[in-house]
């Protein structure tokens, strides 16, 4: 996606939006946190940590958090929101040289895989820094929903540009589920669980139409928990 941090220009607006919005607070965050499970006393790497909303939830559950994001403004917001965390500006196209092998217990990679060009290389780095008994939880847009919105061949990985309802312009990859599974495999992971989340019950009061659609259609996100393959 290039060297420019796309979210930097609307980082503050994104924080205001994502703090309590339907898709973040009542859909993706609960699904990812449930897959992570017990985090108390564990060191969690929050990859593409955004403005620190996931990190805040992890610290509240007793985790020690290291966060990485391409956007300098997002990292400023993280440091303000989660003073106990350790946050760094980092382009995910680069190796994680600041982290030694086997140095984190869990990795969270929420809704950012689609912004990475060489996803297998990054996933290999996450496998390297993860302890052998650790886990990776990642979420991404549901590929069926991507295909229904954008058309074309479901199986062709390609870059698209979208303008979100807030007027934010973003570029990202569309890729089939098969591609994501293969990238995890080649990076040395085994998929332990794959979840197609449903919104929380509270979400129905926020947006009934979205609640009913995401409770019945594969048009939102999916989440995966993967573990290091002990054979590799």
UniProtKB/TrEMBL annotation:
GO terms for biological process: methylation. GO terms for molecular function: methyltransferase activity. Pfam families: Methyltransf_11. Residues 45-138 form the Methyltransferase type domain. Gene3D superfamilies: Vaccinia Virus protein VP39. It comes from Saccharopolyspora halophila. This is Class I SAM-dependent methyltransferase. Keywords: Methyltransferase, Transferase. The keyword Methyltransferase applies.
């Amino acid at each position: 996606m290039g060297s420019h941090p796309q979210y930097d220009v609307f980082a503050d607006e994104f924080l205001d939006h994502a703090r309590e919005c339907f898709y973040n607070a009542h859909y993706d965050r609960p699904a990812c946190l449930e897959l992570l499970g017990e985090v108390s006393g564990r060191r969690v790497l929050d990859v593409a940590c955004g403005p620190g909303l996931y990190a805040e939830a992890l610290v509240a559950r007793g985790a020690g958090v290291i966060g990485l994001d391409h956007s300098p403004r997002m990292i400023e917001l993280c440091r303000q929101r989660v003073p106990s965390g350790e946050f760094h500006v980092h382009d995910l196209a680069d190796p994680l040289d600041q982290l030694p092998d086997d140095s984190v217990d869990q990795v969270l990679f929420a809704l950012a895989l689609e912004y990475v060009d060489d996803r297998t290389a990054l996933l290999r780095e996450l496998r390297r820094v993860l302890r052998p008994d650790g886990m990776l939880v990642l979420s991404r847009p549901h590929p069926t929903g991507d295909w229904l919105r954008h058309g074309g061949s479901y199986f062709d990985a390609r870059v698209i540009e979208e303008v979100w309802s807030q007027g934010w312009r973003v570029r990202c990859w569309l890729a089939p589920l098969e591609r994501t599974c293969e990238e995890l495999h080649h990076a040395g992971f085994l998929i332990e669980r794959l979840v197609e989340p449903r919104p929380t019950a509270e979400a129905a009061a926020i947006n009934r139409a979205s609640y009913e659609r995401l409770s019945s259609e594969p048009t939102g996100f999916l989440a995966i928990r993967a573990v290091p393959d002990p054979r590799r």
